Amino acid sequence: LIVLLLALSAAGGRRAVVPALVFAVGGVVVAIGAYVAFTAAGASGAVPMSVVLLAAVIAGAIYSLVKTPVRRDLLTLAWIVMAGVMAQAVVGGSAVLTGLNPFIVGFHYASSLLLVCVTTAFLVRLRTAPGPRELAVPKWYLILAHVTSLVLALTIAFGILTTGNGPHSGDAAVVRTGFDASVLAHVHSWPGYTLMALAVVLVAAAWALRLPTRGWVSAFTLVLVVQIAVGVWQANAALPPLLVGIHMLLAALSAAAYVVTIFAMKRPVAAQAAREEPVLTA
Question: What's residue 260's pLDDT?
Fold first, then answer.
């Protein structure tokens, strides 16, 4: 909320901040009313309260983006994070009400990774000049990078399913998803090793061609190496909780590093034009 208000203030000043605060206060008042009403009726008021707050955030975002034409890219990303946090409250409440259903808990984690990616995109755009952008890498490299994105998403998806069937997906009373965790662990490794091979190709090409992605794709590959090592270690050590947690944390870090890599494949057109403009000397 603080980051969102700061972004609104920088983009539109008081005229952008005040409406957002009005939506926020109004949403809180209505949400409290919904909570009290549902609780008085004998139902759970937590989910209705969260839904009302999420609706207030979405309404505020639409109004803000229509009225504030400056740096809509940053405002959109900031609003998505804000709405995503509120949506996570709804998903988290649903996970509790369904007795920690592994599918909902897995979706809760996947949503968290998406928020990490959006927040990373916000930080990248914050340090990048606004305006049109152009490709700074060969087209084949762009295509390969996006293929790698799909493999990364597939690896994370199978990782979530694997964790959901392991011993740490909830308390002892939680009903698992019905898949064989040991089989899933092997299936999860297949896209993981494919991802590693693709990352090596991207790193080698980036350094050979001196592409602007070489720093962050190298960081992504390094995290991936550690991630694979931790994954193999935890599988051979009977899944100690600490290693499983580190494995999940590294998944978020690898996703964030790859988002920066994707953004590094383009550069502002104005900056490139300035570099190519001839300099007059005396």
Answer: 96
Tell me if 117 sits within 8 A of 255, measured CB to CB.
yes
- Say whether both 76 and 153 belong to one domain: no
Using DSSP's 3-state secondary structure scheme, residue 260 falls into helix
Inside any domain, residue 114: no
Task: Write the DSSP assignment of 119-186 as a string of letters.
Answer: HHHHHHHHTS--S-EEE-S-HHHHHHHHHHHHHHHHHHHHHHHHHHTSTTSS-TTPPP-SS-HHHHHH
Global pTM value? 0.84
pLDDT per position as a tens digit, 138-182:
999 999 999 999 999 999 999 988 887 777 666 666 656 667 777
Based on the fold, state whether residues 93 and 138 are members of the same structural domain: no
Take residue 117 and report the two structure tokens written for it.
């990616």
Domain shared by 138 and 66, yes or no? no
- Examine the domain organization and report whether 280 and 175 are in the same domain: yes
DSSP 69: -
